Amino acid sequence: MNGEEKIIERIATFAQHCFQQHPVVILGSGASVVHGLRGMDDLAQYLRDHIQPDEGEEADAWLLIRTALADGDGLEEALLKTAAPISLVEKIVGLTWQAIAEDDLVLMGRAARGEEHFDLADLLRGMFKSTHTVTNIVTPNYDRVAEYASDMAGYFHATGFLPGIIRPREGGDPVSVRRGGQTARTVRIWKVHGSLDWFADATGRVVSLPIPNALPEGFEPLIVTPGVSKYERTHDEPFRSAIQGADRALEQAASFLCVGYGFRDRHIQPKIVERCRQQNVPIVVLARTLTDEAKRFLAENSGEAYLALERDGHGTKAFLPEHPHGVTIENPDLWSFDSFNKLIM
User: Fold this and answer.
1) Which class does domain 3-37+117-344 fall in?
2) What is the DSSP annotation of 117-183?
3) Where are the domains of the chain?
4) Mean pLDDT estimate for the chain
5) Residue 259: beta bridge partners?
6) pTM > 0.70: yes or no
């Protein structure tokens, strides 16, 4: 067995070990982009094309944001630099919802016609070949990729709202569903920054509704967009309950699987760091390109039980405790979600 074969065997062994612990799955934007959902750069362009600020404070703030984007800042960096007036924030939230909802509805159509494959659905099927009745997914994404994948895999999913068309919040203990006389296997999706189908009416009442092509009249979308108001809004419901549920799932996790997650979110990060650095909980990170923040996590906070894979030219770069700076192997797509599934199943 040559050196590369030994590394691949080590990767497979660790991936299977992580999977056998029934990991909490953390989905970042990279897990959605592969399904046609626009990323931050495309969203920034959409906002540039569609925002029409009023004269005065709005126009001044938007000019600062546009200038930061033109200077090379990412959307989140640009929005964090400027304390935009609430009226401009509302426009940003509304147009962000519109952009992602357009992509999400197209994806729903493909999924319903059986034209879209979800690697997450394959993973869920594998995870439920066990005695476990609940799998936890934590995500800052607004889209419904996790929900569609759960549907395609044949499992119930729960996002903190009761079943139905006009869905009130669960409140209290999570609702469990029975199927064939037994507790149904359920995917609990903790959407810490909200969801495309969460809304509040003029009185502040929170509901989940099927999403239309345009915002339903009289409702505002409950999504937390990047910017200075991001961490203020998450003190309110339903974000607070989602974050608390995510915290519980992360605190109890026996392992973690991160897919397309950039390690930039303060609502998710601390619990992962605590579990990995202090308790050496195993973690696998899959990404087309690892962010600087992800590499810093691996170097400083991941403990001694980690595996990270990213694309490296025509090969894959693997980060392991014995290869902290990464080692390149020729396998071209070992970093992908599909390849991870093949390794473990």
Assistant:
1) alpha beta
2) --HHHHHHHHHTSSS--EEEEEE---S-HHHHHHHHHT-EEESSB-SSSSB-B--SSPP--EETTEE
3) 3-37+117-344
4) 91
5) 27, 286
6) yes
